[in-house]
Amino acid sequence: MTRLVGDLEVAEDAVQEACAAAVAQWPAAGFPASPRAWLVGVARHKALDHLRREAARQAKEVAATAELGPGRADTAPGVADEATDDDQLGLIFMCCHPALSLAAQTALTLRSICGLRTAEIAAAFLVPEPTMAQRLVRAKRKITQAGIAMRMPPAADVPARLAAVLRVIFLVFTEGHMATSGQALVRDELCDRALRLARELTRLLPGQPEVTGLLALILLTDARRSARVGAAGEPVQLADQDRGRWDRAMIDEGRTLVETALAAGAPGPYQLRAAIAACHGDAASADDTDWRQIVALYDELLRYEPTPVVAANRAAAVAMADGPAEGLRLLRDLAADEALASWPPLHVAIAELHRQRGDASAALSAYQAALELGVPEAQRTFIRHRMRGLKS
Q1: pLDDT averaged over the chain?
Q2: What pTM, to 2 d.p., does this model score?
């Protein structure tokens, strides 16, 4: 609808109204032969009604009416199948236009591509929900006022947006791989969507090492999906996963891709993350993992992304290579950072290392800190299970 109407905000409202109409009508009238075509048609009419009411936007109404006129009827061939990965990539490139700030690019993509609620995005950015709602509205209006089109940009403009596009596709996958809300740990539809988008981007931009690296990273990480969740929906730690359930075909494909990318001699953060994931994929067990190689890769990654989160992941790898005491020392230093101290996974990592050392009291305290900071329900279940085990 954004592509057809040319206005993200109008399209979003129109689709929501169409979905509401479907919820009201379909139970009584029955499902239409093509639900997508029905939704597209109703949303189109809702959008046109809105444009007609906007007298100040008469020129846009004329353009939209011509674009969405009789030749694009509800049952027109292909309408039901028009929304493709090209459309989603076009939407991502639109949201990642340099005219928007990096924060706005990320928030808008999480809203438009992931479908996250404004409250969820606000929590991720550590800002009040009304503040995030205003940012999203301003970003959508800036896209409209600047006339930013929802399509792949010309080749000359791709480099300026590529880093942001890679980041948001990775964020889509991250939200699917470790959901920040809801009952489930994994959101399968987001993992699948991110993988499709990464494949499509690789097809459109062959030979780009970081694009190839992102696809390799998603493949190597997603290969573990079926082993990451227990029978009750609880998270299964990497060391405890049944590696026989890992998808070896995805691991093999990802390993080949990351080797190809690194051979180009232009390493970047996605290639390095993929190389770390490949180390896990190559190990027959947690004990067989080359943790020193992983630490070395994190050292290199820190040159590109000197963030507390990367440093925390490196500390966890150091704990596996040199023992939990050294990992705890590094994590305690990181906890002095005020922003990172409010990140629940840091406290979970600290608790796990105290647990390995047999310090139940310190582990319980760190687990409780993570719960108080707020974690998704699946993680909450895991933490409570760990705490019950320590108390007993």
Answers
A1: 86
A2: 0.78
Contact 363, 390 (CB under 8 A): yes
pLDDT of residue 74: 39
CB 19 within 8 A of CB 72: no
CATH number belonging to domain 307-392: 1.25.40.10
**Average pLDDT for 116-140:** 84
Q: What is residue 59's predicted lDDT score, i.e. its pLDDT?
A: 56
Q: Summarize pLDDT for 225-246 with one digit per residue, the tens.
A: 999 998 888 889 998 999 999 9
Q: Give tens-digit pLDDT for 39-79.
A: 999 999 888 888 777 645 555 545 555 555 443 333 333 43
CB 272 within 8 A of CB 301: yes
Structure tokens given for 90: 């076009």
Any idea where the domains of the chain sit in the sequence? 2-81, 84-187, 206-289, 307-392
